[in-house]
Design goal:
17 helices, 516 residues, 31% helix, 6-stranded parallel β-sheet, alpha/beta, 7-stranded mixed β-sheet, single chain
Length: 516
Amino acid sequence: MTATKINMRSNENGSSAALSQNPPQTLSLTKKKNTAVVGTKTLIVLDTSVLIYDENAMYAFKDYDILLPYTLISELVNLVSSKNEVSRAARAARRVIYEIINSKNEGVRNGSFTQYSLGKGKGNLLIGDMNAFTLPKGMSANDVYSHKENDHVFIDICQKISFLQKSENLSKRYQADRAIALLYKEIRLVTNDQGMLIKAQPLNIQAEEYKALKVESEKLPKGFTALDEIPNIPKSFNGEVSRKEIGIPTKKIIPSNNFYYAENTSSHFIFGNGKQAIGFRSVAISKLSAAGIQPKHGDIFQGMALDALLNPKASLVTITGHAGTGKTLLSLAVALQSVANKTHTKIIGARPVVGIGEGHGFLPGDLQEKIAPYMAPFHDNIHAIKNALSNTDPLMKKIAQGLDKTNQHNWFNTGIIEFISIHFIRGRTFNNTFIIIDEAQNLTPAEVKAIITRAGEGTKIILCGDIEQIDTPYLNKDNNGLSYVITKMKDEDDFIHIHLPHGQRSSLANKASMLL
C-alpha cells in the first residue's frame, strides 16, 4: 500500500503536526502489572541538527530503526528558505528523505507512523509524532520546562514510546502505536544540540551526540616528532638522509609524511616522505622562503609548514594552530610564489561565513563588496607579503606587480586571485589552482568533502584552522570537518598535516591566547 497523506497544520510555535480525527487525550499509567514482552530492536529518534550536519545520517545506524518526527520535516522546510550553508544542508537532507519515501519500496501506515525500508542490511524509517495523545501531567518536557518549543517534541516522543511500553489498558486507537513501541528494547535520542542533551537528562531520556563522523581530537597527529638529537648531520646539510643517521630503528613503524626535529637545535629538521616515512630529507630552515616570507624568529614549526606548502607531492595540506601562528600568511605566500613561477594558474581563497545569506543582504554593494569584510584576513596578509617583497629579485617583482591594484592587469582584476565564500565553491571544478580554505574548523565533514572533491588536475588545497575555536552551531573539536579530514587522510602519500604551537603575531596576542 502507498503511504497515507498527512494533513499538516501549524501549532502555536510554528511547527507542523498531523491532524487527528479525534482530539488529543491524556493517557494514564495502569496499575495492572505489565506482562508485555518488549522486543529486541533499537529505535533512534533523530534531531534536525543531525541531518543538518550529515544528510545521510539515517543510513549510519546499522540495522536500527530511525524515527523522524513531523517537527523535523517542518524545520527542514523552514530552513530551506534561507540562503546559507545551513539552507544547503537542509535541502540535501530533504532530498535524501524525498528519495526514501519515493523509492520503489512503498510506505506502510501503521498507527501514528508511516514506515519505509532503508534498504538491505538497514532498518526502517518511521515518520510521525504521535500527536493523538498527550503524556500525563509532569512527564512532558513542556510541563517540566514550563513552555512549548520544538525541541520538546523530540524529547516527548521518546517519553511516549517508553510510556506505551508500560501501559496495557489502552483503547483500540492506541493499540497500533503500542505494538510499535513494544518492538524496541531501547529508545535513543541522537542530537548535536547540547541544549537538547541537557534537557533530556532530567527526564531520563537516553540521549547522545551523533557519533558516525566523530573523531578523537585528542589523538590528532601533530605532524612532527621530537628526537633527543639528530647526530652526524651538519647544520648546513640539505638533502637525503637515512634512518640510521637520525636515530630511528629500521623496523620501527612511524607516521606517514611526518617531520622530525632535535630538541638541541632549531637550524634544521627532517621530513619523512610517504607512507610510514620510507625516505628522509633534511631541511635547513635558512633555506626556506616564499614571496619574501620566512619562518618568523626562526620558528622551526613554521619552517615545517612552509616546507609542506612548498612540497609538490602534497596536493592536500592541513595546518592547525591558534590565532597568530601564521597559517594563512604562509599559505598565501606560497600561493603567490606558485602563481608567479607558473606552477599554478589561479589562487582561490575562501572562508565559511556565518549568516552568509541574510548577513550579506544587509551589507551595501554588490556580492564582492558584501563579502569583503569576511575576506579581510586574506587582504591583511596580502598587505604583509607586499611589505616583505624584495625590490631586486625578478620573481618578487613579478609578485609585486600582480598585487599592485593600480595596475590594470593585476591578479585581482584578471581573476588570478579570487576571494570567495565557501557557498560559491560548490559545483565548480578547479584545475591547476591553489585553494586556501581559512577557518576550516567551522565546516562539517560533508562540506570539507564537497570542497576537496572540487580539485581537478594540478590543484593543491590548504585547509587552515583552530579546532579550539569553533563558531558554527552543532560543531565541536571532535566532529568538525578539519579534525575529520586530518584523521581520515593521515596515512595518504599526498597529504601532510602540521600543527603550529607557537604564536608569532605579538607577545600580547600570545598572552591573550594562553591566559584569556
